[in-house]
């Protein structure tokens, strides 16, 4: 199993093993080159595997302890599925002949795996290499996503044969030339828009999309791309906004939408009297290739078909390092003004990240990751995985307080692996997005119970203490100046650091 | 929904809501008498609901955010199922007409609910009261366990009718008199053993079981009872040990096993060349009533049928408050010697709790809870729920370090609700049970990867800082004397306190 993975270039395993995985754990020591990274909660491992893929283009393994343990991995597994990130989940299970005894920790592990996506129950050590290859193939062939092997303990007790099934990371489908031509024609029409989804949006792709817009007059939007290059010299592709009214507004004049790498844009939730679709009802939808498509190749093909010209993008004025009060705006400006070169910014936060989002086009070129599936607790684990994949690269984990607590155990793995992560923990002491959602539900003045269920105050979390408790050095910043100083120091020192930004 | 629950005596809701639950959240403020307790992770809410039931005999509600959020609740939901604890899970879901849009946070919530046990998808506000009543009935009728309502957001937007379906907490089945007679006959035979499982073992039941043993000459064992009264004046019923070899040994002379409230005892995991069954192969098994049976009534019926006499139990020598080194033995002795009257001790820990288990018969009468299903992370949430159900009663949460980290967010809810919990955090810096399991797997000297995957050192967790960060006062104890002083103070002050016991 591990050798099959290694032969495919998969060399990292985020692990949270239990008794049924002990033979797998022992085997790791007999496989040179396979790194084992311990996490203290399964959701950290599944999110880290997602982040590892996004940063490196190589999938990682996750190792989990049968049904309930793997259940803890499902939320970030969901995020990986929605973000089109392959993960190879290795999930132990009870010894086959012990299952009829219905032991306390027995459960329908396969049903959990079904929910997680592609899955296979491994029935023999003779199949383990082929089954691993099948999982790698399933995970990396578009649409990419998690693939799960459920491996009963007795299968792991026996020696597997030495021969290894050869498998390579899957490639995505090249665009259909006829469709490229049809899309190019449509993009010339008035009210045309190119909407780009899929798993990433590189600087090259942003240049291509901008060239296509210039050549055809179409608008260009990105739509929930979990992994995007952004910053100075990279054309800015506008995101379709989160809230339905704003999304509907930016798309109001669209008459023809060419959809690349994504189904049509929709609202995140269903609200009373708000349609699911954010495109105008009468707008034409053209499917240039869904989540299984190679969006980069499709953009290149469009550029070539159109004879579009790529142009250099002029500089954007960079915000100065702010001083004075620390708020959503000055925090975003400070993160951007002090961002190291070639960083990865992992964003989990809606309200707290508003400033960061608006300034980030002025930052040095960097990558930005977001937990696309909407399951809470994706941010810190993504940062763990990105850092494991990118030695020497600074990861800035821009993290809301409420969501951080779902996978706060990530901090310990950052400390153990001495990962170069600067955690910017935005402490506003509330689930601010839920306050907005209460307002949207017509509750202008929440009653005491609703208020208590959206507040993180009383007591206030002290993230500097939590970080210290998990071995991560930490600083609290209550002004922009203090934040800037701490941020500069954190980014220049090796290993993790947490800055609690008091908003 | 809430009024139906209230009418059945259910008055507490452990909640981790999101956008699709906002109408439910707002409704809470219109229902007097329904308490809402916020948790920062779903597994805390499901474990707390379990603990609330065990302490009070009243189920609690859990409120969760659709598929991935509820997935986070599954591990402790599994523990509740195996511990026969009813929970009523209220799980939001996407607006029905928004499901076809396959939004990023959409998933098969019903499939998650299927794994969790009994479940129903609520299709109309007109049904919500009847559906709630059905869930309460399903959860509390034996075998008890979680029951889940999946409630799409649009169902919660509309006003439900005022009429409430009346429902009462279910009762368990009384024993069949013929079976009682047959069991009584069998217990008189040589090599007979009465094995008592089920959801609780009260002092009364322990007296009854001991009287039965005295009247018939049978042995008596308890088997994975998640909620037991123990201490001075309560006859000690021996537990069947955790490891298979020890379990097989204590049961070696059994020729006839009368099983009450449980299927036959089995090993926790399947190991090479170790049978699942821990009873001798030729022993007769007699089923006096499985997990759906009222074990207390069955014991009373046996006592009456046999004319058995209950006797007072003599005192057990209480360990002195230890001094000197802090280790598993002295820690257990100290916890017992200083245990407040009528406490609830929640145990999650196998190796660290060995001393506590051996001394606890000498403690003042108390209750002990354990996470029966084997899913990690049950202990701290059980303590949260037990404390919410038992104002004025001291909860001692005796907690291993590794398992604590799965639901460490529990500390914050303890602080917010000012729960009278003394957390005894056993810090041995390793997953000691996995070291034992590696040994069992024949790995006497783990390689560096296996060693790293079972070690919590490098960096060491500092639980006093983690607790302080979540608003819980904390102390570190490195000697038995220091532990005793901190423990006495913690137990006498209101609100939570964490003592990190360095082992």
Largest interface: chains, residues each: A-B, 105 and 104 residues
Radius of gyration of chain A: 23 Å
Q: How many helices of chain A in DSSP terms?
A: 21
Given as residue ranges, the uncertain stretches of chain A (5+ residues, pLDDT < 50) are none
Looking at the structure, the CATH topology of the largest domain in chain A is Rossmann fold
Assembly category: homodimer
Instruction: Indicate the CATH class of the largest domain in chain A.
Output: Alpha Beta
Descriptive terms for the model:
Rossmann fold, alpha/beta, six-stranded parallel sheet, 18 strands, 3 domains, homodimer, seven-stranded mixed sheet
Description:
The structure is a homodimer of 503-residue chains. Chain A has a 7-stranded mixed sheet with strand order 9-14-13-15-16-18-17, with helices on both faces. Chain A is globular, with a radius of gyration of 23 Å. The first copy, chain A, starts with a helix and ends with a strand. The first copy, chain A, folds into 3 domains: 2-157, Rossmann fold (3-Layer(aba) Sandwich), CATH 3.40.50.970; 177-306, Rossmann fold; 328-502, Rossmann fold (3-Layer(aba) Sandwich). The first copy, chain A, has 503 residues and is α/β, with parallel strands linked by helices. In chain A, α3 (42-56) crosses α15, α9 (177-187) crosses α12 (295-306) and α13 runs parallel beside α21. The first copy, chain A, is 37% helix and 17% strand. Chains A and B meet through α2, α4, α5, α6 and α8 of A and α2, α4, α5, α6 and α8 of B.
